[in-house]
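Assemble and predict.
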Amino acid sequence: MPFIPHTEDDVRSMLDSIGADSINDLFDEIPEELKISALNHVPTGCTEMEISRLMSEHATRDNQGRCFLGAGAYEHHIPAAIWEITTRGEFYSAYTPYQAEASQGTLQLIYEYQSMMTQLMAMDVSNASLYDGASGLAEAILMAVRANRKSKSRRILIPKTVNPIYRQVSDTIIKNQGITLKELDFDATTGTISASSLPDEPGDIAALVIPMPNFFGSLEDVDTLTDWAHQHGALVIAVVNPTAMALLTPPGEWGSGDNAGADIVCGEGQPLGIPLSSGGPYFGFMCCKQQYVRQMPGRIVGRTVDLEGKPGFTLTLQAREQHIRRSKATSNICTNQGLMVTAATIYMALLGGEGLQQVARTAHQQTRQLHERLVALDGVDAIFNQAFFHETVVRFEKIDVDSVLSGLAERGILGGYSLKSTYPALGEALLICATETRTDADLNDYVSALEQVLTDKRH
Amino acid sequence: MSDIPANLKYTESHEWVELRDDGSARIGITDHAQELLGDMVFIELPEEGDILDAGDECAVVESVKAASDVYAPISGEVIAVNENLADNPDLINKDAYDEGWLFVLKPSQAEELDELLDADTYGAKTTEDDH
């Protein structure tokens, strides 16, 4: 039974009053070739029992082995209190309630989230979140093109050290809006954008994207890149890992001079208390300088006073949004990832600045240790001589990376992310990550499993 | 009844144009427009040096009630913008025809000036709108 409240008579009388013969007539404007008559890949419905069984079967395919895989989503310890509180009835909702008169608790929580994000990023303002890191970057690019009013080119410089999926998603979202992404090569010795990768005469560019850490885990020279972009009239879009920001200089402090700091910051919020869950739901975050706030997409919660002078919270700057600005809104996204943000806010509140710093430091130490031990093995090399956060790249001399990964999987280890398809020039390269959840014993197991794999394949 | 000075020219979209002795044209929104929109909270202005065609969306006035586009009444180059509006958007509410000006154009198509409305014609249009 379809959940549609209108009877056939209701539909008929509505169609009659607007002078249409059928509901399909309402879609006449859409060219024939864009219409889909059947969804061939979508199966017919299942019963609850069938779907529970199917999902349990799928679930067993996850959590196989200890995870040394990052590449954009990271396994962190999530204290039990976080989801215990997040799933309380007061917070747990299919849709974020935004009505100020009924939702002060939720609105205050989002306000606290925004406050924490601006502190972590050293930025002026934060929105209430976006869908995920990749679409967050696309939104940041669209925002930069609007906000950089001196630039007319709609050209964005984006390093190849930005997560390839983020680049692909951004391209999909912006390509029909007359915006071009110009990719920048990275330095083969550092795995980062060096001064020599930057064009001498870049011409008119709207923004430069700076990843920190970048997809290889390496630390970019953010101060030089920020100053270079600002000298050339470009805005700086920072794509950062929020955990790393507990240790590294936050984007609001990048570069020098009056103009210092990234102009827009975005990224994936998953590391802040969201389980890996086979890839989602996650959330994207976005912050910016105060002067660009009216170009920011998404919802923003502000603090105000009510008629009696008591403090309260409400959505603010709504003239940016679709219900007021229609087609000229800053985005077609007019909601946020409420539940994920609830978890992230509680995660940040429970850990505090010090706790988050401890997570970041331990993850860095474990990855550094793993890296040192792996490259000490015969036939495993370091590729880049650059400082990294909690991810880095190793290369195998005599064996292909896919058979390393399958060999490790047989020994209960998710060994990392093969860079072969996205960065073939790097050879048999593997992106490895050890967060604070990987113990010294886990590292030992990884090293001995890899030794076995290398020995097996040699014979 | 809103104020419609006789020395200015007008558009149907509620902009006013003041032709000045040096050949430039100062532009703003009418008293009638500010009354309809209510208290201004933010004004987005064009950049000096922008080249506008008549009818281009070139500014946004945001009030507590709505955000509205401002259209260039005539073609030309933007040679000045009212920086005071950044901190005091309510200048438009207080003094739409002087302190609340938006920007100054150097007109590039003299004949477009003849197409603008005079005060009486604009006044008649706004009265029609009110009914």
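Chain A has a mean pLDDT of 94.
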